[in-house]
Amino acid sequence: MTEKDGNLAFKCTWNDFGFKGICSKEAYEYNISKNRAWCRKAPCRTFEGPPTGDDHPCYESIIFTEWRFGAGWDHKVVERPRKILKVRVGGIALLTTLEPNKLEKERKIIGFLKIKRIGKGEEKETVIYGDSAKSLEIDPSINIRFWNYYKNPRVPNRHVWGTGLFRYIDDEPALNFLKDLKRIYNDKKLANDAILKIDQNIRSYEKTPLQKLPSHDLEKLCGNCGHANLEQAKFCNKCGKPLVTKCLRCQTPNPWGSQYCFHCGAKLNETVRDYSLAIRDKLLGFGRDQLNKPSPWIFTPEIRADKLLQEDPNAFLFGAIFDQGIDAERAWAIPYELKKRLGHLDPKRIARMSEGELKEHFGKVPKLHRFWRKMAGRIRNACVLLEENYDGNAQNIWGDKPESRKLYKRLIKFDGIGQKKASMVTNILSRDLGVEVKDKSGIDVSYDEMVRRIFLRAGLVKSDTMENVVEAARGLNPEYPGELDYPAWLTGRSWCLPKNPKCDECYLNEVCPKVGI
Length: 517
Description:
The protein is an alpha+beta fold. The protein has helices at residues 25-33, 37-41, 63-66, 171-188, 192-206, 215-218, 272-292, 303-311, 313-322, 328-331, 334-342, 347-352, 355-363, 372-389, 395-398, 404-411, 419-431, 449-457, 466-476, 485-494; strands spanning 7-12, 68-70, 73-74, 80-81, 92-97, 108-119, 127-130, 136-137, 166-169, 244-246, 253-255. The two termini are 42 Å apart.
């Protein structure tokens, strides 16, 4: 094998959590028994919360959530980061592992990364970032062996990996692997979306029109009059027609007169409604995948605080009020801190306190909130309203299985809860806490900064108004508009940043028009 084609294979340590979280104690102890170098050093046994791209104990815990893997470190004499010197964007990185008590010849391929970015640094290992839209986690029922596609250069008949976490793979075996994988998926009648991903990668290796245009297209042949224009021309110098048509879905310029995009296959006369539905489907799929992932907490990684929110309806209501102007995880932890300072969260007792007395508790160092004075007043007002209308128990706000619009109207009467928070709370109660709410068509998206940014840049709205955002969500997903809220919020927080958005890493990349970017 050589490195000339720029593909890779990675050796991944066994993870019995599907490579989407921290492995079990049993898997950890097994890996230690096999002298896995990083397992002896990784802080996974003391790690709290779900692994993320910014905070994770090992690459194996985020392979199929963050779609990345690193070259590792040399631990033999002097510890130093390893570098992958010859790899190309557009190639693939096979992800392999050895299940417990299996022989090396049984090493299986569990997925692949479609390489979209290569992270390099003088003091850090090379990190390979995959395109989530084109990378694949192979169905666990498939056992496709790595050594069918790789032979050691010096001892081709031996199945020995040795040291190091990566090997270079030529295009030919990479293509053979993809073709075999597609055949297996077809034979087993597995997911069509996976087959489409595999086929897309096959075409990139076979250099079909996905990568290479016919020669007359490179000469900018006008689709209107047939005149051959210079390659750099944007308009025909005979009839004046534009020589390219930009795909609304992936933004790829196509020769004028084309009916389908040569890059993503979308119709070039696709309407805004068409790509809006594609964006909707991507958002909903992402949101459902995220919500199905096991997590030790819902609101905040402070476990005791999170438990209080799930057990005490008043604490939950207070957390929603606090969720403003600071990180959400910190805001939702404040009810627990307030309870420690007061000794209780009894609305009746809090309502009887003066606002000044309550501010003293809020203002003690460390102050409970960035806007601690305002929040002290809002919490007291909430307790007064709870006493007057709900017998001092927030459970009575939603405990009668109300219609979603009625619940929204009840919540919005609390000081500090507007459209954004009322929609958010209604969503959380129904989605995360199992509260029965009638008619989910009345649960809207929150007019939140992240949600607004996604709707604008994705072209779902033309202008940033609450009415436009809410109505767009109702039109896209009328049975449950608010289902778009969480994935839009998380996408805005993770990739669609106010400055320097990470479009290449975002799962919406191929369908998002990127308005204003």
